[in-house]
Amino acid sequence: MKKTGEGILLGGLILLLFLTLFEKFLHIPNWLMVAGHMHPLFLHFPIVLLLIAFVTIWLPSTNHNEALFSLIRLTAALSAVITAIMGLILSQETENAGSILQWHKWGGICIAVLGYLFYTFYNSLVNARIQGRIFTIAATIVIFITGDFGGDLTHGKNYLFAPIQNKEKKQVPMEQAMVFEDIIKPIFTAKCGTCHADGNHKGGLSLDDSTGILKGGKTGPLFVSGEPEISLLLKRIHLPEEDKKHMPPISKTQLSAEETVLLTAWIRSGGLLNYKMAMLPVKDSFRLLAASYLQPSTINNNPVYDFSAADEKIIQKLNNNYRVLEPQGLGSPALAVSFYNRNNFSSKSLEELLDVKKQVVSISLSRMPVKDDDLLVINKFENLEKLNLNNSDITAKGLEQLNGLKKLKELSLSGTSVTAEAIEKLASLPKLSSVFIWNTKIDTLQVASLRKKISKLNIENGFVDNPSFIAELSVPLIESKTGVFDTARFIKMKHPVKGTEIRYTLDGSPPDSSKSLVYKDSFAIQSDTKLVVRAFKKGWVGSSPTNAMFVKRGFKPDSIELATPADPKYKPSANVLSDADLADLNFGNGKWLGYMNNPAVIYLYFNDAVKLHSVMANLMKRTEQYVFLPVKMEIYGGMNKSNMSLLGRITPTLPTKNEPGTMVQQVFSFAPTSLKCIKIVANPIQSLPQWHGGKGKKGWVFLSELVLN
Amino acid sequence: MQKELLERALNINRRKFLASLSIGVGSVALGSLLMPDLFGGASDDAGFVPGIPHFAPKAKRVIYLFQNGAPSQLETFDHKPMLCEMMGENLPDSIRQGQRLTGMTSQQKTFPLVGSYYKFNQHGQSGAWVSELFPYMSKIVDDICIVKSMHTEAINHDPALTFFQTGNQQGARPSMGSWVSYGLGSENKNLPAFCVLLSRGKGNGQGVYSKLWSNGFLDSIHQGVQFSSGDNPVLYLQDPDGMDRNARRQMLDKIGELNEMDYKNFGDPEIATKIQQYETAFRMQTAVPDILDVTKESEDIVKLYGSECLVPGTYAANCLLARKLSENGVRFIQLYHQGWDQHGNLPIEMKGQAKDVDQASAALITDLKQRGLLDETLVIWGGEFGRTNYCQGKMTEDKYGRDHHPRCFSIWMAGGGIKPGMVYGETDEFGYNIVQNPVHVHDFQATVLNQLGLDHEKLVYLYQGRRFRLTDVEGKVVRDILS
User: Is the ipTM of this complex over 0.85?
Assistant: First the structure.
């Protein structure tokens, strides 16, 4: 038995060396290839058995287990030889084998030889203990190296150490990026490199450099420039995953959709290699896609701190409605603290924070009554980076105490009484880069000199009222209700800016800053008034005018009858005609009666006779919206419905193109007449003029109020 | 009721089970060292702890100056001189590419190109183009980042607005501010985390609805609180006549006890929310009047924002108020300025709208900057979509209109870790399609959350059997514009 084994061992070894020597001439039949394919499975035996065998040399030898150990050594050597032969057979499948395969092959043969030597010369090795042990160590190293090469073959280059290596994509700015080096190669390396790079050239294809790419593999060239549809590379990528020729093979990591699109665009744009991305046309789709590919995939925004987080319970205890502690991010130990509500602030509420003084990196004390003494407490927050003291009660003197904040970057002092000298002293804080001093005593000259003296400091002094820039005042506010009034109306006005002078006219003319009436207190008006108002103040440009109309009404009808229907879309109650509201230019707001298909015929009734001398109708003109004045409007009056005489008639001239939309107060005046009934007839335009977009179509008449005097 | 009782029972059982399990946890923990996703990955919210950002935030707060109605990019920041040269020529089909139009212009026989009535100039060190309508904003271009390549999916106001605010064109999802409130909690516990301010310009307007600041399925404490301009800025906040603060306190204590009892019985989390809301409202009663008081602002500040800032309800006043709220720790302040829907009469209407917002928007940036707050406050200015490069309706040199255009529009962002003095993205010469660096609404939302220290893929809420995100299943942080 032992003899047979030894025989096979020697025979096998010789066969192995023979096959190696004449590898070039080898032609492996298919059935034997099955043995080759068993190499990745079988190789585990020699590794384990050889390692066990090597251990025996380190153990104290006893007689009764020597036979077993000897058998293990023999089996180990045998399995090493068989594995090596299988490997050699398998290697014949790969043409153009790369360097990794070569190294793996020679390593395997070496192991087979070492296994043989170990078995054969075991006795002498045991006797020469030191040499024997050195031998086993060396052989073990060879086994590991060869195994690693094998791993690289099946799983890709650098398989073993990949998990502990920095996998972050190298960041290359678009302007410097090269087509192949920075865009295409990283994809090839990650997804194809296992078999087609770094000494692995399966199918004769090497994707290491431009030479290999242009050469292609044994099936043909990799791509046809500009034609992704017929390019081999993309054909293989797009084959169904279960297809044998699909690339990458189904067992390997597949290309992402983004990468496939990028490769397609690359070939479409010509398959350039040593070419600068920036030289491609700006709108080239490959360039656009590459730009988004080059962005870092994830960004970890969390700054790193060298202190540990505070106890959750302490943070919770310190948190209340007026003092808020916020973590700076999930898992970040840093805290930002904000104080709210002036009345709830006390020095104690600041001191309590010292429990977490290491963790606090930002404190906001905006508007809090912080005193100089409190700054002594703040000075203890060694990791503080940002401090907001806007509008607090600190002074320049107190600021000197902030000498311990070695990490402070930003300091906000707007609205405090700090001085330029105090800012200058702050320059000793090593990290300080921004100071905000808007609304302080420090003037522009001082700011300029500070900027000169402390160049590292970014000093923000904010909006400075430029004397050459004069702002315009907003219009005054007319607080009285405008429109129709019955006996008298009080006019009340105001302007939000203090010290503003309000000037007005009552006749519709624009007021000026010198002659027009000055508004002092509210006043009453008793007749129709067109109020125009402007505001003035020294140092400001006067406001634009704003106006309001007040119309006096003598009588209100007791009832109103719409003898013809208003259009259903604009048909509020007839009472809108006497609601004392002139409304605005929005005819859809339920305050306007609208007529188009028929004339408006409206009756107003009084229970007792009244003496009238005028009727005012509030009409609308918005030609773009097809709203015109009536082509004819008539007013009749009498003591009853069946007995009335004409009091007035108008036929307004047609408006011209581009007239702005307005409300028109159409007044009918007549000799004073006693009346109990009034009839109003208004005819909408039946054919719009030639210049109008809707020429020939019907127009609207809108009516919102009738005022009787 | 049956369901709630069962829930309650299950809650108690779960607690007991978890308590007894803790003994075994030690040994499991050892094994899980190699399996970090074993527990985290399966949890409802994937490792999210409400109130703590995922990573260190660049911005602590957001002020979103929403220009409702969609200001035209072609009269604001996207300078297209070719449109002036090709004035009146028809929009080439090769540019339109069959893009769907709204019903307002789809019947038009021609699509005449129309250039900006207003001139553009380059400003600042960045050389950004800004239209002459915005003299104040022109001065702050070196502090802001203009994104010219925004695009959206909706073509009408309501869906587009809802999409911007909630990440979904149909309503019923939480608003951006609600997500931020949920993600980060409130900073100042005496004020809501999410506030809303409305103003209206004279231009053609579109309404805004409270669904835009709804908390959706999130806890109702995250709903936006609207501040109005009247005597009662926060509705139902004032004590009724005849009730003093002590009586209020006593009443709240008693109601609190009753609610506490109810909560013990039923365990409904909305009861706990209710208690919390009463308490916040009580503290707001003193905090809000203090903040709304603008009389103490210096004349410098009034000049900076324009004197309109003292008139409650104006855009300028809202900007000033936004600064004050932000300074006081409100996480998310949403302004809406209405009136930007210029289908016709664009040159005149836009002039008015621009005058409303220009000075105050720029002032807000300057004001935050001088207080050292700009680096921790993200300010956003922009509408819900863009406007067409062709004219809607009749066209004369000084009178034209533009329809809705979702394919490109411009917004700007400033502060909060956004690169200042940058112009990002590019549109074609027609101002119709994006040719470089498109930014989708979801990308924008992801970027805003990112600046607040929130990972938009992890900020999720389990509801009706699925996880919801502000960015749905899309969104990519626009890292190019981060400093």
Answer: no
